[in-house]
Design brief:
Structural class: alpha/beta
Shape: elongated
Radius of gyration: 30 Å
Bound molecules: adenosine-3',5'-cyclic-monophosphate, magnesium ion
Largest sheet: 8 strands, mixed, barrel
Helix content: 40-55%
Strand order of the largest sheet: 9-10-12-13-14-15-16-17
Number of strands: 17
């Protein structure tokens, strides 16, 4: 038996205004009227037919039912439990959550303003619902007053965000004074940073720093990872750990990645020219790793941008490396696999970033078109403190070797790390032991210094 199906006869009350809410409903058969129960009659706010959802408000804001619901015909309703809704809400973007609370607050306020109906505005003094239900239509002035503020809030424009922010504060503090301080101020900070990030993008406050990646056997420079830095005119350096997640949630990350891709590719060309000037063609051309996020793959311009970066700079094959994290592989493995395959056919190389921290199954490793594996710094940093990490790194290196993948250890900080990783057969390394991420001028000076160890030709 389907315990979540509820049946009601025509004229039955499903719930009354003011009741405690225990679930929302989807109308599977029949129809339902939403009514305000007033001393002098019912005001019908809406009728809901098959496929519609109602009764969600009391579940989301945990307040009494904002209106009553009555079966207009015999009905079958599917109950959506509090747990089902809450589970989704908990995972929603915090700003979206706050917006929902604000919308509900407005709606409840508006509903509470519909007191006893004025004679010309709604039908009143009625005995039976079937004869009396009256749906307010858009010609009804009163309804227009009711609906407009709601619509304004439901479809916030950019300008509305600011004024919404003010309303949010008030709504939150009324709803829950504790939330008002923490969640609210966090949410406002995020909205603010999002707007500042937009300015940063147009005013070129974002910079790329380049961290050298070297051959472990002898420390020879083989490539770089391009890392984004935000140098804010007043706040100074803002950590990527702060602004990247914000950009990912807001979608701004896509433009940022394309900017980084173009910038890093043209910078790579310059580094490769310096390399040729110092050492001719005796070493493989330097590569440049660029980080991508899951959102980038969903963008329609992605493949064109990759192709353009490779062609416009005439980059040698495999010298542009796309870094993707394990969690991105899992978003939609087949689609990612297809897109990465095309990137490789264009001449790009693909690295799996932060390996060991995600939850991907090892089977992805053999099916993904990736040629490089980057071992996460959390394993490397504890290599000497934790035997289990040593065992893990050893196994990862062995596995990557068998799959013919190039291995890069991240977060290499000591001579001891270098020694161990070398013995374990890791190919490349990146970390403070060799160099920090640096702006272009410093990279050029650092490369020059390399010529002491690797003489110019
Ligand atoms: P809830 O408050 O749980 O119970 C009554 C339901 O009626 C409410 O959730 C909404 O689903 C619905 N409701 C409330 N106000 C309106 C309105 N103005 N128009 C349409 N439906 C409404
Ligand atoms: Mg990376």
């Amino acid at each position: 038996m389907d315990t979540l199906m509820r049946h009601f006869k025509q004229g039955d009350w499903i719930f009354h205004e003011g009741d405690e809410g225990e679930c929302a409903y989807i109308v599977e058969h029949g129809s339902v009227a939403i009514v305000l129960e007033r001393a002098d009659g019912h005001i019908t706010l809406a009728t809901y037919g098959e496929g519609t959802l109602f009764g969600e408000m009391a579940i989301i804001d945990q307040k009494p039912r904002s209106a009553g619901a009555i079966a207009l015909k015999d009905c079958s309703l599917r109950a959506i439990t509090r747990a089902q809704l809450n589970h989704r809400l908990e995972r929603a973007d915090p700003i979206l959550k706050i917006c929902i609370q604000v919308i509900l607050k407005h709606l409840r306020k508006t509903l509470s303003q519909i007191h006893s109906p004025e004679p010309t505005k709604v039908s009143s003094h009625v005995a039976h619902l079937n004869e009396t239900h009256h749906v307010l239509d858009s010609k009804d002035q009163h309804l227009t007053q009711v609906v407009n503020p709601i619509v304004d809030v439901v479809q916030p424009t950019e300008q509305a965000v600011q004024s919404m922010a003010e309303t949010i504060g008030q709504a939150m503090s009324e709803a829950n004074p504790l939330m008002a301080t923490d969640v609210f101020s966090e949410a406002i900070k995020t909205l603010h940073l999002e707007q500042e990030l937009q300015v940063a993008l147009t005013e070129r406050q974002l910079k790329l720093y380049y961290q050298p990646i070297v051959r472990l056997s002898d420390g020879l420079i083989v490539g770089f990872e391009a890392l984004m830095r935000w140098i804010h005119p007043e706040k100074g350096m803002i950590s990527p750990a702060v602004f990247i997640p914000i950009a990912e949630r807001s979608g701004q990350i896509v433009e940022m990645t394309y900017w980084a891709l173009r910038e890093a590719s043209s910078q790579l060309k310059q580094f490769q020219n310096v390399q040729k000037g110092y050492w001719g063609t005796q070493y493989a051309p330097l590569f440049m790793s660029v980080n991508f996020s899951g959102r980038d793959f969903l963008d329609g311009r992605f493949l064109d941008e990759i192709q353009h970066a490779l062609q416009s700079q005439d980059l040698p094959p495999k010298s542009l490396k796309l870094e993707i994290t394990e969690s991105m592989l899992m978003l939609s493995p087949e689609e990612v696999q297809r897109v990465l395959g095309i990137c490789q056919s264009y001449g790009a190389s693909v690295a799996i970033d932060d390996f060991g921290t995600g939850y991907s199954s090892l089977s992805y490793l053999q099916s993904m078109p990736a040629d490089t594996l980057k071992i996460d710094q959390s394993f490397v940093r504890t290599l000497h403190k934790n035997d289990r990490h040593l065992a893990l790194v050893e196994s990862i290196l062995h596995l990557a070797g068998r799959l013919g993948m190039l291995t890069v250890a991240e977060g290499v900080e000591t001579a001891e790390d270098v020694d161990t990783l070398r013995k374990l057969g890791c190919d490349l390394a990146q970390g403070y032991y060799y160099a920090r991420p640096m702006p272009t001028e410093q990279v050029l000076a650092w490369m020059e210094k390399q010529t002491e160890k690797f003489p110019k030709i």
